[in-house]
Specification:
244 residues, alpha/beta, binds NADPH dihydro-nicotinamide-adenine-dinucleotide phosphate
């Protein structure tokens, strides 16, 4: 694997996104920190630059096609390729995360959640594929969740009443994308996997989660830096496979 790798991490201004950026940059990978807010993105990039890490801010709201086009054009112009894409940006807008909202979630919340977690992720990935194909070891990591797991939810008492519908369904759709894209790219060097970070202390995970952001970021970082014999089309937490 070449050591002039370029990575793009979405939702990189806080939580798992900034930690994933930090850990990739600590391996000497140049990390483009995709953030929708210019102010928050610049601040986050500055924080890691002060640690001596090779990172840069790039503006990217994954729901804005023009920003996807601009980011892609900038990466093409400056680097001509992309080695690693970590689709980390995510939301559980409008429904919280600790309830079963299936009977009540509004169409607006459902659409907003899918816009970020699924449609934006797919559109960005499709747009960047041409650049990822230029890498000799392309890696795509879709940050999913154990809450995407139909196998676990459909078990008796599976994840109990922890079923925020819009969030869970959007992450299940992300997992379908992982499986289908891995199959579509099976004759390339590109590996595509889903990551479950664990329950992590971030704005989304809340203060009572057992894992630190640094611990939570490890799964995505491992999948982003898999060697040539690594898996593709799989769903992991740490080194363990999660059932679909
Ligand atoms: P945070 O809420 O802390 O961070 C979410 C990030 O996504 C922020 O940077 C946010 O930006 C960004 N984001 C939201 N909408 C957009 C958008 N339209 N375009 C670009 N960026 C956007 O969450 P976490 O760090 O906890 O979550 C990161 C990922 O991990 C998510 O995909 C989440 O679903 C997943 N996950 C988290 C778990 C946990 O326990 N924390 C468990 C399982 C999965 P802004 O600051 O501007 O809002």
């Amino acid at each position: 694997m070449s050591n002039n790798r370029i990575a793009l991490v979405t939702g990189a201004n806080k939580g798992l996104g900034i930690e994933t950026s930090r850990q990739l940059a600590q391996q000497g990978i140049l990390v483009l920190m995709g953030c929708r807010s210019v102010a928050k993105g610049r601040k986050a990039a500055k924080e890691l630059q002060k640690e001596g890490l090779p990172v840069e801010f790039i503006q990217l709201d994954v729901t804005k096609p023009e920003q996807i086009r601009e980011a892609s054009a900038e990466i093409k112009k400056r680097f001509g390729k992309l080695d690693i894409l970590v689709n980390n940006a995510g939301t559980s807008a409008g429904e919280g995360r600790s309830l079963n909202s299936t009977a009540t979630v509004s169409p607006e919340a459902l659409r907003q959640t899918f816009d970020v977690n699924f449609f934006g992720l797919v559109e960005l990935t499709q747009k960047l594929l041409v650049l990822i194909k230029k890498s000799d070891s392309g890696r795509i990591v879709n940050v999913s969740s154990i809450l995407a797991s139909l196998s676990i939810h459909s078990r008796e008492g599976g994840l109990s009443s922890y079923k925020p519908f819009a969030y869970d369904a959007s992450k299940t759709a992300v997992n379908t994308f992982t499986i289908h894209l891995a199959a579509a790219l099976s004759d390339t060097n590109i590996k595509v996997n889903s990551a479950h970070p664990g329950w992590v202390r971030t704005d989304m995970g809340g203060p009572h989660a057992p894992l630190s952001p640094a611990e939570g970021a490890r799964t995505a970082v491992r999948l982003a830096t898999l060697g040539p014999d690594g898996p593709t089309g799989k769903f992991f937490h740490g080194e363990e496979e999660v059932p679909w």
